[in-house]
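User: Reviewer 2 asked us to show a designed sequence for the structure in our supplementary figure. I'm pasting the structure tokens here. Could you produce the per-position amino acids so we can include them in the response letter?
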């Protein structure tokens, strides 16, 4: 795949998505789930059964109105980012939604980026020298 800033083959692109410390889900301009990244430590499990489904069918009923508001504000151009953070099973989870637009501003869809920031919130001071903490951070 050729991009303006370089080129990647499919194996490289799959490896990059798997290595990212975030979960990514893309919903297209027709409000259908088109893609999600598959990493070893996903915050929210995803089944391939959601691919092609309307996004509002992928959320609990009590939060559907929020999802619809986000997508609507992205579609009409009034907003470009929405973010939330929650405590989930002892973890601090940061969830961000980004409007995806082409070069002329046409709405292409919504990108959801979810990250477990529990460890990062505990960092203090500085680390300026290379040090591997354990298997998890050495990956």
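Assistant: Here is a per-position design you can include in the supplement:
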């Amino acid at each position: 795949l050729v991009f303006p800033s370089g080129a990647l083959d499919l194996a490289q692109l799959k490896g990059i998505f798997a290595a990212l410390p975030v979960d990514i889900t893309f919903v297209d301009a027709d409000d259908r789930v088109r893609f999600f990244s598959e990493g070893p430590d996903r915050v929210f499990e995803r089944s391939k059964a959601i691919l092609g489904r309307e996004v509002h069918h992928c959320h609990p009923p009590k939060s559907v109105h929020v999802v619809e508001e986000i997508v609507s504000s992205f579609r009409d151009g009034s907003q470009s980012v929405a973010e939330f953070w929650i405590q989930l099973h002892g973890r601090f989870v940061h969830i961000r939604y980004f409007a995806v637009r082409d070069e002329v501003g046409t709405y292409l869809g919504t990108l959801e980026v979810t990250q477990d920031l529990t460890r990062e919130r505990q960092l203090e001071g500085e680390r300026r020298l290379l040090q591997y903490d354990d298997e998890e951070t050495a990956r």
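For the response letter, you might also mention the following. The radius of gyration is 17 Å. Residues 71 and 110 are 7 Å apart (CA to CA).
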